[in-house]
Amino acid sequence: MPGARLYDAIGGAYTATRRTEPRIAAQIWDALGDARTVLNVGAGTGSYEPADRDVTAVEPSAVMRGQRPAGSAPCVAAAAESLPFGDRCFDAAMAVSTVHHWRDPMAGLREMRRVARRVVVLTFDTDEPGWQDRFWLTRDYLPEFATVLAGFPSLAAMAGAIGARVEPVPVPWDCADGLFEAYWRRPAAYLEDHVRRAMSVWAKVGPEAERRAVRNLGDDLGSGRWAERNGDLADLDAADLGLRLLMA
């Protein structure tokens, strides 16, 4: 379980900056519709779990399970590709920013479709030509990001596997959830080690690429070059950086 091993290694830093972003949560919860019983697959520490529904969580990493707060939904140690539940026993199954860590994303999505009447997945779009250039961090400082998602199924294939429609998920400029794209208008945050430690991308690209990206970004922030390139971002309240919601 690659995702479990990754988060057993880096998950201890996760709660420092990763939490529910209300505007993204509202979009996810709206997609759940009138579902009363919800399975959260790859649930991590429990961000985005709706408090007003009967939630069951699935999380393979012991480190992440151990950080779930008291009173959170019951959590089962299992992988997305082999969910230990019967057919259609949940009203909805959700997965938030986790599919790219699964050993077999398509198998996991089919399992979600099997155990639930409705499926809601927050994932990433790599179908658009030049998708790496949507975000200045990957465009100018971390081209290795493309290799992180090498072999990841296309958005069209994932949507087709579960019969989903697709909706963009804008990232607010002051996003409370410290996901990789969260600081697109706050670039100095990427210079902070505790911010990067809660993003799996850095563990995957390796320390050499990380050091180079941080050094070059720091130089460009100091010289004003970053502002020259990206000054137009100051007028945006939210940005489309490739996050997509699959709803089936």
UniProtKB/TrEMBL annotation:
Family matches, as SUPFAM superfamilies: S-adenosyl-L-methionine-dependent methyltransferases
Coiled coil, from the record: none
Short name of any one Pfam family annotated for the protein: Methyltransf_11
GO MF annotation: an example: S-adenosylmethionine-dependent methyltransferase activity
Domain of life of the source: Bacteria
InterPro entries recorded: Methyltransf_11, SAM-dependent_MTases_sf
The Methyltransferase type domain, residue ranges: 39-118
Protein's recorded name: MerR family transcriptional regulator
Source organism of the structure: Planomonospora sphaerica
